[in-house]
Specification:
Blueprint (H helix, E strand, L loop, with lengths): L2 H9 L4 E11 L3 E10 L3 H12 E3 L7 E3 L1 H11 L45
Antiparallel strand pairs: 1-2, 3-4
């Protein structure tokens, strides 16, 4: 997760005047995403919408809140002009399916591998 990605999602809200995102130390993950947001409206009016844009709460036993990368990436793509109907979110957690995927988070960043594949399909 890059600060600019989170900033883009938060800045898309009409009441947000300025935003800065930084990594703060975290014992488990190394860093935690921290956002400082300046709004034109009272925080209690804006925060629920901003939380919905970038956070997700797990329903499992830990019930922890975390940055929703799927929603954030979708929001960034839409804000750059990609039509929503052209965006598909697989909904597969690489950290939860480590038998199928390499997970940087699952390995706590220890192995140093990374890959990405992006392709375009022709019209059918």
């Amino acid at each position: 997760v890059y600060a600019v990605e989170v900033e883009a999602v938060l800045a898309a809200h009409p009441a947000v005047r300025d935003v800065a995102v930084v990594g703060t130390p975290d014992r488990t993950w190394g860093e935690r995403v921290t956002a400082v947001v300046v709004t034109d409206a009272p925080p209690e009016e804006v925060q629920p919408a901003l939380d919905e844009a970038v956070l997700r709460r797990d329903d499992g036993p830990s019930s922890r809140t975390h940055f929703d990368l799927w929603t954030a990436n979708r929001s960034v793509l839409i804000s750059t002009g990609v039509p929503a109907h052209n965006i598909e979110v697989a909904g597969i957690c690489t950290c939860c399916n480590r038998d199928r995927f390499y997970s940087h988070r699952g390995d706590l960043g220890a192995s140093g591998r990374f890959a990405a594949i992006i392709g375009l399909r022709g019209e059918t």
